[in-house]
Design a protein that fits this description.
Largest sheet: 7 strands, mixed
Low-confidence stretches: none
CATH class: Alpha Beta
Bound molecules: iron/sulfur cluster
CATH architecture: Alpha-Beta Barrel
Number of strands: 9
Strand content: 15-25%
CATH superfamily: Aldolase class I
Shape: globular
Number of domains: 1
């Protein structure tokens, strides 16, 4: 079966660039399921190019409107992995969408580690391409973050905050999100919100629910 790089959910187009991630969140959907509403998101390999993604995107975007409630107005880079780990592909696909479908809003759901991984600030390169970042803050302290997100490097929590600020500094809309209530775990939401605000971000609480949607 071919890789599902593009899929739809709740009237939006989602892009599933990679299964790699620098976190191992205890609530990650991937641990329990191999599909999102029947769409298998485990990839056979990590070799997909931006052209592969664009080919699938075109097919879905241009499906007869009778298959959808309304035209697609939002595209989200998300899926079963950290999309910014395929930065070049993400940038090329976002550029393609902006060139061809300027009415489509682009959001990137990210763990906020990419600047650390790539050793440079990638955010300015996405200005004008990405309309909003949603960054997983997942805690008011490093300890809270580490317990939920199990990052693969020690500086992760600080890097997440730096990434959020880098988005705000570029005047790109940024939401700092937390997952609340996973198996009875409760975060200090007041402190999380304050951190988000101080970094220049909006704040969003996602209540944990079985299956994630
Ligand atoms: S950051 Fe996202 S993809 Fe990575 S482990 Fe956490 S929930 Fe899963």
């Amino acid at each position: 079966m071919s890789n599902v790089l593009v899929y739809t959910l709740d009237g939006k187009i989602y892009i599933n660039l990679t299964n790699r991630c620098t976190n191992d969140c205890i609530f990650c959907l991937r641990k329990d399921k191999s599909d999102v509403k029947g769409q298998e998101l485990w990839l056979d390999d990590e070799n997909s190019t931006s052209s592969d993604v664009i080919e699938q995107y075109e097919k879905i975007y241009n499906e007869p409107l009778t298959r959808h409630a309304s035209p697609f107005t939002e595209t989200v880079f998300c899926g079963y992995g950290e999309p910014m780990l395929k930065f070049d592909e993400l940038k090329e696909v976002a550029q393609y969408i902006k060139n061809n479908y300027p009415e489509v809003k682009i959001r990137v759901n990210t763990n906020g580690h990419a600047n650390f991984v790539y050793k440079r600030n990638l955010v300015p390169e996405l200005k004008g391409l990405v309309d909003e970042f949603s960054v997983s803050l997942n805690g008011a302290t490093k300890e809270e973050y580490n317990e939920l997100s199990k990052p693969k490097f020690d500086e992760a929590y600080e890097e997440v905050k730096k990434f959020i600020k880098a988005c705000a500094d570029e005047n790109i809309s940024v939401v700092a999100s937390v997952v609340e209530g996973y198996k009875g775990r409760n975060l200090d939401l007041v402190a999380c919100e304050k951190i988000a605000q101080n970094l220049g971000a909006k704040f969003r609480v996602r209540e944990w629910i079985v299956n994630g949607y």
